Amino acid sequence: MIQTVIVAPALAVRAGLRAILEAAGDFKIVSEAARLSDLVPESQGIDLVLLQPAAMEVSSFSQEIIPPEAAILLISDQSALMADLAGKPPRAWGILPPDCREDELLAALYALDLGLVAASPHLIANLITSRPNKSGSKVDFPDLTERELQVLDLLAEGYANKQISLELGISEHTVKFHVSSIYTKLNVSNRAEAVRMGIQNGLIVI
């Protein structure tokens, strides 16, 4: 069972999230709270924290409250929150809007439990070009073009060069050029490594 904590200001929201997770059958709700600061510090045993932050609360992300082995999924439409979240200790993180579908929520939680990044494309867009490090300063991030990101997504889906060529309406030679450029920018030598780096850095959305 995936040990899960639910944090949301509204009781009705917490009840709704709990019902969805319990119906899925793979989650055990070990704690609930209205605010992150209300949680009792846990030293172990938490796999996921499902968090709809209260106003001005995201700055309270704390390794003392949320153990580093836990993953965090934010329920928010404020993409700026991800800049803070991406630089924090959790092993995996994600963000979905409050109006996300039930299947999207469950898919994101399963992905986070595997240590992956999960987010709505429009919310993760700001992290494509840069992300903060733990000190809060900006660090360089692979600057892939829109076409390279499209190619990387198709690589992640297992497409061969010829299939990518047909899907994007470009020549196979151009596909090979884009793949080579992706390898160089991500500092990898093969497709598997490129996909792994793309997932770890939020370039590929699960």
Question: What series of H and E elements makes up the topology?
Answer: EHEEEHEHEHEEHHHH
- Residues in helices, as a percent range: 25-40%
Could you say what the CATH architecture of the largest domain is? 3-Layer(aba) Sandwich
Beta-strand percent range:
15-25%
Give, in spatial order, the strands making up the sheet with the most strands: 2-1-3-4-5-6
Question: Major beta sheet, specifics?
Answer: 6 strands, parallel
Rounded average pLDDT: 78
| N- to C-terminal distance | 21 Å
* Tally of individual helices: 8
Number of self-contained structural domains? 2
Reported by name, the CATH topology of the largest domain is Rossmann fold
Form type: elongated
The CATH superfamily of the largest domain is known as Response regulator
According to DSSP, the number of beta strands is 8
Q: Tell me the structural class.
A: alpha/beta
Give the low-pLDDT segments: 128-141
Radius of gyration: 18 Å
Could you name the CATH class of the largest domain? Alpha Beta
Please, could you describe this protein's structure?
By secondary structure, the chain is an alpha/beta fold. The chain folds into two domains: 2-120, Response regulator (Rossmann fold, 3-Layer(aba) Sandwich); 142-200, Orthogonal Bundle (Arc Repressor Mutant, subunit A), CATH 1.10.10. It has helices at 11-24, 81-85, 102-113, 121-124, 146-156, 161-168, 172-186, 191-200; strands at residues 2-7, 27-33, 48-51, 71-75, 92-96, 118-119, 130-132, 138-140. The strands form two sheets. It has a six-stranded parallel beta sheet with strand order 2-1-3-4-5-6. A two-stranded antiparallel sheet has the order 7-8. Helix 5 packs across helix 8 (191-200) and helix 6 crosses helix 7. The two termini are 21 Å apart. Residues 128-141 have low confidence and may be disordered.
